[in-house]
Fold each of these.
Amino acid sequence: MVRTVFICVFMNCLLLQVSKTHGQDLVPTESRLEPLNRVAFTEGPAWHPDGSVFFSDIENNRIMRRDADGTLQVYRSPSGKANGLVFDLEGRLIACEGGNRRVTRTNADGSLTVLAEAFQGKKFNSPNDITVDSKGNLYFTDPRYGDRDTIEMLDESGKSIEGVYRIGTDGRVTRLLEHQVSRPNGIAISPDDRYLYIAVNSNDDQGSYRELWRFEFDAVRNLVAGSGQKLFDWGSDRGPDGMAIDQSGRLFVTAGLNYASPPHETAGKYRAGVYVISADGKLLQTIPVPIDMVTNCAFGGPDRKTLFVTAGHKLWSITVKEPGFTQWPTQ
């Protein structure tokens, strides 16, 4: 089934199609994807209960904050080319600093604490995206896009390791995935802490992987061996980047292109948008975005029914029917 909605871009409205499958209708008919602010290359939105939204401006090497009244201000500059952001269980902002190759925490007094910058004596590739579980453990992906000359994460055979890591509440860093997925990017955890979701976006050749994977946790937050399951595949189109999850466990995954990016990424079946996917891999609905490079999304608002989306050089928002899930603050 296809449902027509209007998406407003500044003063112009684009007539687009929101696809709906498997009987799902998660976006109200009257909802419009609204541009909130324009900066440069946006990433990693994170909502704060005071009504503000934090997001990364990678191109200008800063973290931005949009206040509840719409005021836009620079929160931190330089940011170490921050990418993914999340609040920990104490409300402190955690950032994947891709440029500095580390994960940091901004404390209440504004000081920075480096949580992780190396594993087994080797610097990370470029921490990309991050999430937190109900116990306060942090999980992040460590791919390397672009120049690979400075990669230190190599296995015994010399093959690069683009892994997934956990920072425990005791500060200990553990590698959870090594070669099980190719180029991990976005990351999410199910509301019941049962599953770890990884967006795989290896976009540098036509044969690369552009998939959504699910892994199962055991009782001590390690991954069950052999539990990896591919849920969705974007083929040769632009693969998944960041994602958010709602209270029912549905994934909202940013992916696709409106215009092909040759020679590696096509714009075929999967156009730029937010893909709503069930926990078992069914595509439920697609929220189109009228600009390419849809990078990430996060739920917020007092009822968690606002989805904030970073795409191109803008921060966007759209109202959804079912509330999203956030570890902090608890609802």
Note: Confidence is low (pLDDT under 50) at residues 1-17.
Amino acid sequence: MQANFPRFTVAPMMDWTDRHCRFFHRLFTRHAVLYTEMVTSAAIKHGARDRLLGFDDAEHPVIVQLGGSNPTELAEAAKIAADYGYQEINLNVGCPSDRVQEGRFGACLMQEPQLVAECIGAMKAAVSIPVSVKCRIGVDDQDPELALNALADAVIAAGSDSITVHARKAWLKGLSPKENREVPPLDYPLVYALKKRLSDYPIAINGGIATFTDIHAHLAHVDGVMIGREAYHNPEMLLHIDPELYGKEAPVADAFAALEAFYPYIEARLAEGLALHTMTRHLLGLFQGRPGARAFRRHLATEGVKRGATLSVLRDAIAHIDRSIEQAA
């Protein structure tokens, strides 16, 4: 196992892991590695870079995920992202959405391992920080074992520093992105076999992982675990990452303390003209199983979206939670 490889990461998730979400998640764990949403190389080249790549230093350690298939453009985007201070560049070879397919990147690149290798090589030549890949085990009618091994061998030869594998196929036709996260069967043993074959190379696993029992079981076979939806919909699970996986104390005692620590950030963004709901939308998964959780969510969902909503909306929402009762495990 790789001693310095991150044991736990929060997955890149479109429309979810923006800078506000990442700042909030960081309040629960100092050691988990966070990812940006996928940002296309074309958007970085032609778009508003500060909006796309800007982040708070408090988010570290954080990795930027890029989407694209043009080696020259990806190299340029990687250099720009590295200059912003990200600790690593990750290439998306797993997203199955129609928009991604039209742009010839994401999961469809599982069918073009040599092109992925060219992209990795170009980015490695452009930056001094690590460059990695997040992929599927295959797409459509590919043989997963052949597809995954072909991609891994190609990108490793090109200099990729690690691979994170979402242990499902992606079906490019006939399934929605949501269905592609749930319907194709998971094949964890295939990822374990990849790690066994590439024993000295860092491999992380992703897909369908929700509990610490799951996490510890996977870490017996691979170097790292990536969790997406569970971390987003139940952010309080992040409170246990540092004690469980790193032997360190959690940075805050509970979700109430995390929210208190989030207040100054919210007030600063409100002063910049941002709407409250751009931040509070990431809080709706808090307090699962606790009396008042539904009222908390309802208050944020109805009052937080109103023009001119202030921090008092969040405080009022929290007041619905019964603090006298321990949260359900």
Note: The first helix runs from residue 19 to 26.
Amino acid sequence: MRGSDGTEPISYVFLLVEEFSLIAFASAIEPLRLANRGAGKDIYDWKLVSETGEAVCSSCGACVEVSGGLDDASRAARVVVVSGLNAHRAATKPVLTWLRKQSRLGSPIGALCTGALILAKAGLLDERRCTIHWENQAAFSEEFLDIELTNRLFEIDGNRFTCAGGIAATDMMLTLIARDVDPGIVSLITDQIIHTPLRGEREEQRLSVPARIGVRHPKLVSIIQMMEQNLEEPISPSILAQHAQMSTRQLERLFRRYLDRSPKRYYMELRLQKARNLLLQTEMSVINVALASGFTSPSHFSKCYRSYFNRTPYRERGAPPVAAETSLSTIETAKTV
């Protein structure tokens, strides 16, 4: 396949793994198609592969046919790992070996959503900046202590590129397209997909605390930020109150007024949510998950977890994962922990 001017198109190989994110995949591949359309020639071509060469089902259940297996990929192509739920299960020996081989051949290698976890397991993100979906950041940081992880929408560091997933994949691909061809084509694409303005790689991926909780009280926001930054070693209510220059009684009233729960309960919920993410997304032992979530006693952790999620941490580890985590705001019927 050649461009209309006789030059070779830039080739991509998308490696789809089981339970990949369909929205991230579509958000990445559609800009390539539209770049060809806008340029009136084939700037890009692409191939879809899987580990076995068989069709792969996304996390939403939609299955996608591929062109072949790992051995069918072009050596000169840019490789993009498309992952989603249970990325650690997709990091099989054949996949990791193939990725390392592509790296030795000089292929630029990237990842969408949780695909960064697979690249990290292959050792391809050492001494590189990368990002991953915010829900997976805690698990990633626990496993890869020496890799620089950011909270940005996407990161392009040399010949490695990663994005948080979702429509952030569009922003990353458009940035890459702007580097490859006339940036004017990018404007045509953003108009076509109604995605303006284009977001840069320095933008943060997650909503701010005020946007997430629906409250803009400066002291409450400051306290919650402090809680989120200290989940492994929880801070006492008295120190939180001192940080906000208020009494513990005022702190209690503040949380009751805006969040309808005590500071202690809200803090516990944050820690238990982190624990659940680690249980579902890593192979860490339950004891290590407890410690990483600020619990020094495994029995106390198990009791709190069961009270909140109505199942034990061990049952959670063996239970099928859900597509999306339940947000704190929807758990109004949980018992006080």
Note: Residues 10-192 form a domain with the Rossmann fold fold (CATH 3.40.50.880).
